[in-house]
Amino acid sequence: MSKKKRPKQDQTNLLAAVRAVNRGKNLSATARLYGIPKTTLYDHSKGRLRGCTTGPGRKLSLTMEEGQPLINYIKYMADRGRPLTNRMLKKFATAILRRKEHVTQIDKNKGPSDKWCQRFRKRHPEIKLRKPDKASNPRMEVTREDIEEYYDLLETTIDRLGLRDKPECIFNCDETGISGKEVIRGKVLVKSSQHPYQEIMNAGGGHLSINMAISAAGNCLPLMLIFAKHMPRNLDGLPGDWMLELSKKGYMNGDLFLTWFKDLFIPHCGRQRPVILIMDNLASHLSPDIIDEAKRNRIELLCLPQTQLIYSNH
């Protein structure tokens, strides 16, 4: 019975491993990190196989060069108060994969697996997956240390960008929802013959989300209304610069937030740069496209405190 041939190594992966060894990295550790047989790596690092080319073996879904933008996103968000969770890492990796025209091992609709994330971390030891001191709901419990750390980050960012005396360049965005089924919680005084009623906004039979941004100087930007499934019939009286959108259940998602950011926030936040945009840590608010758009327009993204399993770059 003939021996089973060992698959040839991916050229990019092998070259990266050889460079690491030549820079003084441990041979055995590097071989394990890149998934390359130790003898093969040793021969290439010593030039014994110079002139030999490697054929197609198991290709990385993201090469070392293509994976660098993902590392940059991890570091960018970690420095701005929103370290990525394992779930967010998969989301960002999927977005990068969808930009690639060639076929990859990962389903671009489903995204990478947990094992892929583990291998990615092994190839990039400069990032680690860490668990905060507590794992409670970030909206329910935030410690005094969390608040102090956030304000230190905010103050440092304001000083770094020179916005101490420019409140018109510091914005906060948030969203709220109206279900149309709000319960009357209080009582009012009326005449004995008068019937009290409460007027609520009709969201067209479903949930309505309202996304808004306001500056530290008090300037309120046009609103974004997100209706469920279909638009209400009567929208008379709404300002013309408000943005009206639809989603399946009337909630914000990544595509809608990117639309709001590009088509409403950027045109209405003024011409001065840089600008700070403070937002909560919802996953729909973060994507590679939003970060790239923010960098192009000199908008600094800053996230409110959150407590989840996170990636750290140190």
From TrEMBL:
InterPro entries the UniProt entry points to: CenT-Element_Derived (IPR050863), DDE_SF_endonuclease_dom (IPR004875), Homeodomain-like_sf (IPR009057), HTH_CenpB_DNA-bd_dom (IPR006600), HTH_Psq (IPR007889), RNaseH_sf (IPR036397)
Q: Which domain of life is it from?
A: Eukaryota
Is Chloroplast a UniProt keyword of this protein? no
Compartments where located: Nucleus
SMART domains xref list? CENPB
A Pfam family matched by this chain, by name?
Answer: HTH_psq
Any idea which UniProt keywords this protein has? DNA-binding, Nucleus
Q: What is its main location?
A: nucleus
Example GO CC term: the record gives: nucleus
Q: Where is the HTH CENPB-type domain?
A: 54-130
Q: Which GO terms describe its molecular function?
A: DNA binding
Q: What is the protein name for this chain?
A: HTH CENPB-type domain-containing protein
Q: What's the source species for this entry?
A: Mytilus coruscus (Sea mussel)
> Which lineage ranks, top first, belong to the organism behind this chain?
Eukaryota, Metazoa, Spiralia, Lophotrochozoa, Mollusca
